[in-house]
Amino acid sequence: MTHWIMLIFVEYFMKYAWGLNVNLKSPIQFLIMTGMVLTISRLSFNYIEKPGKKFIKGMGK
User: Fold this and answer.
1) Do residues 11 and 22 touch, judged by C-beta distance below 8 A?
2) Total Cβ atoms within 10 A of residue 41
3) Which pairs from 49-56 meet CB under 8 Å and 24+ separation?
4) pLDDT the model gives residue 61
């Protein structure tokens, strides 16, 4: 669900903050970008989506 947002955020950081040219045709940059997106998405799932589900389920009781 957040993959597109994470791709845009990571691409922005790579281009403007770190001064790297984003070229996803390069295998190394593709792997780095994929790893960052998966890591950020996993953290988002564990710390935002799971607690949100528990909170919403608790409101119905």
Assistant:
1) yes
2) 16
3) 49/1
4) 67
- Which residues in the chain show pLDDT less than 50? none
Indicate the residue type of 34. T
Tell me what pLDDT residue 46 has: 93
CA angle 43, 49, 51 (to 5 degrees): 100
Classify 39 as helix, strand or coil: helix
pTM, two decimals, is: 0.63
Residues ≥6 apart with Cβ < 8 Å to 24: 30, 33
> Which residues touch 15 (CB under 8 Å, ≥6 apart)?
21, 22
Kindly report the CA angle at 40 between 7 and 42, in degrees rounded to 5? 125
Angle formed at CA 43 by CA 41 and CA 48, multiple of 5 degrees: 95
